[in-house]
Design goal:
Length: about 260
């Protein structure tokens, strides 16, 4: 078996719970600013998460809820313009410190670095959003901790397509069997499995409870911090947090001993 060499993290919902109080209000601010009466409440946003990628999500909203808007001239440019403003608002929210890391993320990343594991990100969100989240919620040196930041439009098809994971693996120069991937959503699970990342941990997030995680090696509520009341897992090791030893055990379960 190939030894574990790298961890590949999703961002939204995995490193931080960014959707409800980050991306969603940023979209709404961009809509208001453009004089649109579109308002994405929490419930509607949950439905809109069926489509990944902000520009793709806006188009999906128009198709499903505002079909007359599809007649706008230069629709793609209009959507791209709204999305740029959304990104600006989202970055402001990140800089205000509104969005913390999820429990256990700092602990696990520090442990992985100390052990010499390589780190990567594979996400559908915009690259600037990743860098700014890492800087603001992690620390100024955090973007440099990740050897590969695979994000946004760098691939043509977003999750659940496997492209962004293929891209990250290519940039790492590693086979899938040398990696553990960490995701929070059903779309992410399908994308990772599509790239043959079978040593796959799911940390369920605000909007993803009840999604289809079939094929993931393990599903937990959170990486958790020792002493948290939140149990690490539904099925086994209740109360245990996910540390590097747990990820190595998961890797061995999937691929066998070294
Ligand atoms: C994240 C997303 C992203 C964000 C918005 O999915 O779906 O679209 O909601 O980001 P994942 P942008 O966690 O599976 O990568 O607006 O920057 O596209
Ligand atoms: Mg996610």
């Amino acid at each position: 078996m190939i030894p574990l060499q790298a961890l590949i993290f999703d961002v939204d919902g995995t490193l931080a719970d960014t959707e409800a109080d980050g991306h969603r209000p940023a979209f709404n601010l961009a809509f208001q600013e453009a004089g649109l009466d579109w308002e994405w409440d929490r419930a509607l946003y949950g439905e809109l998460l069926a489509v990944t990628g902000g520009k793709e999500r806006i188009r999906h909203y128009l198709e499903r809820w505002r079909p007359a808007e599809l007649e706008r001239p230069a629709l793609a440019d209009f959507i791209a313009g709204l999305h740029r403003r959304k990104t600006t608002h989202y970055l402001e929210l990140l800089r205000s410190g509104a969005i913390p890391l999820r429990p256990g993320v700092r602990r696990l990343l520090e442990e992985a670095r100390a052990a010499g594991l390589r780190l990567a990100v594979a996400t559908t969100t915009t690259p600037e959003n990743v860098i700014t989240l890492l800087e603001c919620a992690g620390g100024p040196e955090w973007p440099g901790w990740f050897e590969v930041i695979a994000a946004g439009d760098v691939v043509p098809a977003k999750k659940p397509a496997p492209d962004i994971f293929h891209y990250a693996l290519h940039r790492l120069g590693l086979p899938a069997a040398a990696c553990v991937a960490i995701e929070d959503s059903g779309h992410g699970v399908r994308a990772a499995l599509g790239a043959d990342l079978r040593a796959l941990l799911v940390t369920v997030s605000t909007y993803t409870g009840g999604e289809d995680f079939r094929g993931a090696a393990r599903v937990v509520e959170s990486l958790c911090e020792p002493g948290d009341s939140a149990a690490a897992t539904a099925e086994e090791g209740e109360g245990e947090c996910i540390d590097l030893a747990a990820l190595m055990a998961l890797h061995r379960e999937v691929y066998g001993p070294e």
